[in-house]
Amino acid sequence: MKHLLETALGILLLAPVSSALAADVTMPDPNYATATAVMNVIKNAAEQELGLEVSTVTTTAVPVIWEAMDRNKGEVDIWPDVWLPNQQGLVDKYVKGAGTVKLAQNGYEAKQGYCVTQVTVDKHGIKDVSDLANPDNAKLFDTNGDGKGEIWIGASGWQSTNIEKVRARDYGFADFFDLQSTDEAVAAASLDRAAKADKPWVGYCYSPHQNFARYKLAFLTEPKHDPAKFVILQPSEDPQWLEKSKVSSAYADTTVHVAYSASLSQRQPDLTAALDRISFNPDDVSKWAYAIIVDKKAADEVAKEWIKAHPDDVAKWFGH
């Protein structure tokens, strides 16, 4: 079913691209604030510095984005939100294996795990992921009265969402929770309700993110990352990915990179040289996302304001 869904998403993704192929470069907008912000900064900088026309397509299906880059037909040229280790399987397949996609080495630091509202820690003493593997504790997160807690594990199409399904099972709390895979906006709304009511909330979270500037959140502690206890396969790699995967430790150190189709190096060498030099400050990314979500600013406007205020950074990216 998921494979069929991704195929359908691929059709939806690529449908508008035929009309956009006249553009010099095409980038995906995954419709979550941090990646949308970074995409717009790259887009506006490339248009300003190189006079390029950059078009965008909207999709949340990460494997489909990589498949489009792999084809090297201009359907998707740049993907600015490669989370490692989450997308390591895709990097292994397309960058290290096929050589059809290139990965810019300048990444920025990130963090991911489970977050709870501060009241969850202070009032209920839930501080560690092991505290979730307790049916009484799980009921604290039950908002619909079905006896199970609710935990957001990510959006459909994210590599991390599949990892979180395995982690919930192997950390021993899957049976006590409804593992919710919804659009991030739905999770944000539930977090907002809980925070304003001083209620418990738990879910997958990542930083940089606007929520850390918006609410009092705490990461749950977890066992230190252990490669032997973090073995993950994705559905595209093996139909029995869930049974063969095992994850019972924290994520490895996380970095976020830019990837681009190998053919872009020939078509737009000045742009790919800039992509290899670009680096972002995680605090800036959180601020951009905050401006988009909380201040209701257009992502395009946020990007242009930052570029105007940081001409030296942009000049370094483009080798000026």
Automatic annotation (TrEMBL):
<dbReference type="InterPro" id="IPR007210">
    <property type="entry name" value="ABC_Gly_betaine_transp_sub-bd"/>
</dbReference>
<dbReference type="Pfam" id="PF04069">
    <property type="entry name" value="OpuAC"/>
</dbReference>
<feature type="domain" description="ABC-type glycine betaine transport system substrate-binding">
    <location>
        <begin position="24"/>
        <end position="308"/>
    </location>
</feature>
<keyword id="KW-0732">Signal</keyword>
<protein>
    <submittedName>
        <fullName>Glycine betaine/proline transport system substrate-binding protein</fullName>
    </submittedName>
</protein>
<feature type="signal peptide">
    <location>
        <begin position="1"/>
        <end position="22"/>
    </location>
</feature>
